[in-house]
Amino acid sequence: MMKFFEQKRQQLISEIVILSAIFGFAGGIVGELVADVYLDPWHNSYLTNSAVNSDPTVSELKPVKRIIASDQDFAIYQAVQKISPAILGIYQKKPTTTNVLNQIYLPGSLLGNGIILTNDGWLATVNAAIAGKRADQLTLVHGQKIFPVTKIVSDKISQVIFLKIDANNLPVATLGDSDEILAGQVVVNLNSVNEVKVNSIKNPDYYFISSASSLVLTSEEYGKSILLENLATDGFMGSPLFNLDGEVIGLVNQINQQALISPVNHFRFLLKEVLKNQLVKRPYLGVTYLDLTQTLGLDQALRQNREAGALIYQLVNNSPAQQFGLEKNDIILSVENQTIDQENNLAELIQQYQIGDEINLEILRAGKVINKKVILGQVKD
Fold this sequence. Notes:
Blueprint: H1 2-52, H2 71-83, E1 87-92, E2 110-116, E3 122-126, H3 127-130, E4 138-142, E5 145-148, E6 151-155, E7 160-164, E8 174-175, E9 186-190, E10 196-207, E11 216-218, E12 224-228, E13 240-242, E14 247-255, E15 259-263, H4 271-277, E16 283-284, E17 287-291, H5 300-303, E18 310-315, H6 320-323, E19 331-335, E20 338-339, H7 346-350, E21 358-365, E22 368-375, E23 377-378
Parallel strand pairs: 8-14
Antiparallel strand pairs: 1-2, 1-4, 2-3, 3-7, 4-5, 6-7, 9-10, 9-13, 10-12, 11-17, 12-15, 13-14, 14-15, 16-23, 17-18, 18-19, 19-20, 19-21, 21-22
């Protein structure tokens, strides 16, 4: 009996061992399949990469263009992009040469700059930018193109020069309104060699006064400029001053101890005359005067207790002013009901009219306000 049970126990153990072996083998197969499906792709890739490359794999670092700037910075950039195609460089014409290097116009030899006013080649600059040279002594550079100057038209009152080149389809500058600028306003200068100077307006109605005699103005002399806060360099002579909308409000006219700008409103209305007749004609009154807004300490008897107006200093012989009865020490208060004040002096108001126009002047004479009709003459060359 005992022998029977011993045989059964050994048989059961053998069956358990066999079943364990079978299940172990099956589990290994299933485990291998799972590993092949879910783990091996990553594992093999990792092992392969590790075997081939001793250094760890790093994602490629691509440069990213990122600009950090204020709204004003972007406005300045956009204004520069708008005006830059309409700027030319003015150089002294080079003699004919076979030397390639001597044919190149360098930034250091730049005389001045100009802005394009018409797409057929009329542009504006200032007297100082051409340094008294004739048309045949000048060359204008626009991009990579070189142009001879075919015509020069000068305006003595604004000190602006109009130049003509033979060209077509040129980009044109947008002219703004120089009467709308404010002290402290941010403005920009740009020259033809792409130098940019961000500036601000110190005084939009500036009189350059070096002595008492410089206070004596003529009715054919603006006398006023736009004064900038910071000085420009010589390479900016004749270059445009523009606002953040890319509108030209003046041209750099003087770079000495101060940077002075000829306002665009002093010459913009001349363009039609220049295009039509290729000359400038200006109306003429014929007085010298003191602007009462600039004459501190002047005797009240002469001022007649007025804070603003044009005190006649002298009359030019045979001038319209003399012919129509104006007198020394008269104070001109207004022209056609436009008041003479800090913003508008006598010349600025007179130059709005045409030769031969009859205008009404409101005069203060010996304490009484009277009106005088005057027919404007023409400024002589």
